[in-house]
Amino acid sequence: MSFSPSLGFAKLFLPSPSLLNFMALDSTAFSPTSLDEAYELLTRFVSQAKIIAGGTDLMVLMNARQLNAERFIDIWALNELRGISDEGETIRIGALTTYTQLIKSPLIQLHAPALAEASRTIGAIQIQNRGTIGGNIVNASPAGDSLPVLAAFDAEVEVGSVRGVRRIGFNEFYTGYRKTVMAADEIVLAVRAPKLKPGERSFFYKVGTRRAQAISKIVMAVKAKTTDGMINSINISLGSVAPTVIRAPQTESLLANATLNDEVIWQAATHLSKEVSPITDMRSTEHYRRKVARNALAKILSQMV
Amino acid sequence: MAVGQNVLRKEGYEKLTGAARYIDDITLDGMLHGKTIRSSIPCGRIKSITFDPDYDWSRIVVADYRDIPGNNYVALIENDQPLLAETEIRHCEEPILLIAAESKHEAEVAARHIRIEYEESPPVLTIEEALEGDRIIYGSDNIFKSFLIARGDVDEGFKQAHTIVEGEYRVPHQEQLYIEPQGMIAIPGDNAMTVMGSMQCPYYIHKALKHVFNLSDEQVIVIQTTTGGGFGGKEEYPSVIAAHAALLAHKAGRPVKLVYDRAEDIAATPKRHPGIIRHRTGVTKEGQLVASEIDILFDGGAYVTLSPVVLSRGAIHALGPYRCDNVRITARAVATNTPPNGAFRGFGAPQVTFAYEMQMEKVAAKLILDSVTIRQINMLREGDITATGQRLNWSVGSEDVFNAVVDRKKFFEKRGNAADKSDLRGKLYGIGLSFFFHGAGFTGSGEAKMKAQAGIGITPEGRARVLSGSTEIGQGTRTIFSQIVADELGIGCDDVEVEEPDTSRVPDSGPTVASRTCMVVGRVVQLAAYEVKQKLLRFVAERYGDADVKLIEGRFDANGKELASFSEIARAYLDLRGELKAYASYANPPGIEWDDETYTGDAYPVFSWGAMVAEVEVDPVTWAVTVTKITTAQDIGRAINPVLAAGQIEGGTLQAVGYGVLEELVWNRGRIINNQLTNYIIPTSLDAPEIETIIIEKEYPHGPFGAKGVGELPMDGAAPAIALAVYDAVGHFVTEIPITPERLMVVAG
Predict the structure, then answer these.
(1) What is the DSSP secondary structure assignment for residue B394, as one 8-state letter?
(2) For B172-213, how does the pLDDT look when each residue is reduced to its tens digit (9 = 90+)?
(3) Do A9 and B251 touch (CB under 8 A)?
(4) Could you tell me if B68 and B97 are in contact, meaning their C-beta atoms sit under 8 angstroms apart?
(5) Can you give the pLDDT at residue B424?
(6) Who contacts A3 (Cβ-Cβ below 8 Å, separation ≥6)?
(7) A153 to chain B, minimum CA–CA distance in Å?
(8) B275-444+596-748 with B452-585: one CATH topology?
């Protein structure tokens, strides 16, 4: 063990170069006021810049010193990324739409109620005021609470870059744990969710670590159409049970055209517990997640009877 | 009268308006920012420490154990914990180096340029591993301390028993989670050191600093700044932070601030002792306890710190508030390679309370007796004798608290209403009962040895000023002291000031722990106020002749004639006689005797008593337990300030709800990995039940205005009450807390 011989407090009285004093001075934040300006910055820096909007995920990482980005592109001023609009068959939700706006939106309440329900379970009021749906999508956490709803609704993500705009099916958006199909210079512009059709219902079910301010141990969304207890179509999606938000195609096809009764419900629910691939982590166990996936689906299906 | 009134908090305005300054709000000229470099392994030796040669170290102050002028230990019960590791590493997060820089950020950056290499040894991480003894890390058997409490003839008792019931119960670590993380600022002087910060016990830090720097009493000054909660977590560990900050300040010749962020605070500072508690209970056919054998194991962590006293309190409370003539309680605290466990509200009692109340229910179930009857049969009442042979002579509110919460009809109506658990739409409902007690003040001869001191001074304006080392940590010390003094002197609370805890200005009142501040120090403050009153009465009598002088409602009367106000007379005293101060010190009430050798006698001068009914809903889809309502009655002698007392009871109960159902540390090879508020789950307001608090006042003749301890009692009863409500709801007996959904699913699923 040895110390540098030059150590000594006398030298500390020298005036200090202020550059090192603050984290903020180590990094630069750009605040584009138009989408074109944002595209230009993204083209210039490609993966050397981090897009920041509400900051509800990034600030936590920064605080824990787990994020060391040198450049930020703050897109909060891009009003063209705000707003919820009725496009006929679909609802278009701008990427900067906050959870609070989703909760309060009559369009969402009417045409995608599960999304409002999911938004209500995210963080605290302060987080809901600041966190955005675009942020939830690009953060790509398997526990993102709005994501199963988007998966169950077969939503579409609209991404843009200098090269133009493209649409990606939400269920093709994630390629692995915290990985998406987006290029480094792309930005999420909006997400489109098809409206519920007559006879369709949506369900949202979250099991958090406590009753509020909780990260999901398991989260589930279901969209289904039933006629007289028979399932015409059903989409089942889950979070926190795999490296990404997933759909459960086997369980879905097991249920397609099935007439719901206790036995069918239990069979499908039991199948789902085998179809998911959860792990044990600091928040829950594999065993628990499988069992609760089963129970939650059974509960949702029993509400359709 | 001020006592019994909901007088506003003395420091409430400053806290409410944000004017109160916590340690991290304070910046001094020339102040540096410190950082602690900690071990990343649980057990082994330091092989090398390398400072990146490409980094500019001239701007950084670095201190290691060789910079300590005095002794490299944290003075406490044993002096076995080094202030900074030399070569041996005994737990993760053990402090090795200290650095200071112009900014917190620069210190963070510098820390990344230090590389420490270790030679790892296999660690001892659990109580079981410590007892197996394959690897010895302390003494000859990994046991820090053991106690035996024996009364009567246990073997004979078991022979008389109609039924013998055995049970094993497990309790976890728990984090105090005070809202303000720990922190200190040290200011070096000429052969002197001043430290200020967030703390419960200024004189603990004072003692620790004297040993580290070889300084005298006068050369060390410790000042408490506004402190955002403690719950025991700021009892012993602040000595470490204070000495670290002081060592850096000493080396730098400049003030140094050392404030932990939440992640470091949770990872490195002490937790509640986890434990395994085994009961073997013999009962008659009617349900009377005739033999009780209890074995307690606590995980002390890597150093002794406070484990012996936590263990002692656990052992003394282990039988619970029940009568049994034949008792054998064995208790051991073991060493493991985990951060030392320490003080946390309840101090060993919440652990054993969970065990004895679960065991009581198990005994009742075996005999087909109900929860109420089994407790009524065995309950300690006035005149009864405890496990240590203490006869309960006064202030025994056992029946009062019990009867207050158990409205029999309602309790049994609600009991056993559990719905069919296969119905996934319905919640399962359950109700559970717990009964408990908590000794107030230090255990055994602690208070007699401590001789807590406090004083009352008179300010130039003629006001009374309380001089005490007891700290305000949110529980109301300043307010209740002013109420006690106001009534003793017959003046208003606004005419009582409370001196800042500063070791150069206040005497050693002992630590702010053990539910002792009101009952023990409050009593001493009252005695000192009485002394001041006597001095002033004599003064008035002398000045006005041999008159019949009285002090009534803030005015002095002589022979029935009004003379002057308290403050006028007090100022006159200062003018004519100079300073007016009186000190008093604590002595146990007459007849209190304790034998440390045999562990028999009066363990505490008095006990506080509690009973609690918890109501829960269990969701059969998720197995999550929601505590919907808690009804509790607690006998605390006298509520000096009922709102503050009820606040203590509600807060302690909620902290115990967390202990019972939510809070769990996740470990990976001796390291806590959920050291964030995101993943260490405490109750939010939505998780908090409605709490109905009933305060029972069986006055304690030797407490100030009849008061006993209140701080810790509420922490004891909730976990078992909830676990028994869950038992009622799902029909399964959960012997380990917290009752997380994952655990309950395994037990009941």
Answers:
(1) S
(2) 999 999 999 999 999 999 999 999 999 999 999 999 999 999
(3) yes
(4) no
(5) 57
(6) B51, B62, B64
(7) 24
(8) yes
Beta-carbon separation of A214 and B681 below 8 A: yes
Residues A116, B263: Cα–Cα separation, whole Å: 33
Terminal-residue alpha carbon distance, chain A: 72
Interface contact flag, A1 B46, Cβ < 8 Å: yes
**A210 in contact with chain B, both atoms CB, cutoff 8 A:** yes
**Shortest Cα–Cα distance, A291 to chain B (Å):** 8
Q: Give the pLDDT confidence score for residue A25 in this predicted structure.
A: 43
Q: Are A214 and B620 an interchain contact pair (Cβ–Cβ within 8 Å)?
A: no
Nearest residue in chain B measured CA to CA from A218:
B622
* Residue of B27, B58, B108, B747 best to disrupt the A interface, most CBs of A under 10 A: B58
Question: What Å distances lie between residue B59 and A3, A8, B102, B188, B194, CA to CA?
Answer: 14, 8, 8, 19, 24
Q: What is the pLDDT of residues A98-118, one digit of tens each?
A: 999 999 999 999 999 999 999
Residue A274 has a CB neighbour count (10 Å cut-off) of 12
Q: Is B684 in contact with A213 (Cβ distance < 8 A)?
A: yes
Measured from the Cβ of residue A264, the count of other Cβ atoms closer than 10 Å reads: 17
> Chain A contacts of B624, Cβ < 8 Å?
207
Say which CATH class B452-585 falls into.
alpha beta
Alpha-carbon gap: A284 to the closest alpha carbon of chain B (Å): 7
Inter-chain CB proximity B253 and A9 less than 8 Å: yes
Ranges of chain B whose pLDDT falls below 50: 421
Residues of B in Cβ contact (< 8 Å) with A27:
none
CA of A73 to nearest chain B CA: how many angstroms apart? 23
Q: Which CATH architecture has domain B275-444+596-748?
A: 2-Layer Sandwich (3.30)
Query: Which amino acid, B47?
Result: K
**Alpha-carbon span B644 to B482, nearest angstrom:** 14
List, in order of start, the domains of chain A with CATH numbers: 8-74 (3.30.43.10), 79-194 (3.30.465.10), 202-302 (3.30.390.50)
Q: Residue B13 has which token pair?
A: 């305005």
CA distances to A118, A175, A192, A218 from A144, in Å: 10, 15, 17, 10
Give residue for tokens 């060391």: A68
Classify A153 as helix, strand or coil: coil
Backbone angles phi, psi at B130, to 5 degrees: -65, -40
3-state secondary structure of B157: helix
Say if residue A303's pLDDT is above 60. Answer: yes
Domains of chain B, by residue range, sit at 22-121+196-254, 275-444+596-748, 452-585
Interface confidence (ipTM) of the complex: 0.94
pLDDT digits 0-9 by tens, A27-86: 789 999 999 999 999 999 988 899 999 999 999 888 877 887 889 999 999 999 999 999
Chain B partners of A121 at a C-beta cutoff of 8 Å? none
Which DSSP category does B322 fall into? B
Architecture of domain B22-121+196-254: Alpha-Beta Complex (3.90)
Write the single-letter amino acid at B273.
H
Query: Is A285 close to B742, i.e. CB distance below 8 A?
Result: yes
Contact check, Cβ <8 Å, B57/A211: no
What's the 3-state SS for B512-576? CCCCCHHHHHHHHHHHHHHHHHHHHHHHHHHHCCCCCEEEECCEEEECCEEEEEHHHHHHHHHHH
**Chain B contact for A70, CB < 8 A?**
no
- Of A1, A4, A16, nearest to B48 by CB-CB distance is A1
Token pair recorded at residue B740: 């997380």
What is the distance of C-alpha B156 from the center of its chain? 38
In sequence order, the β-bridge partners of residue B557 are B550, B562
Contact yes or no for A295 and B620 at CB 8 A: yes
- SS3 assignment, position B436: strand
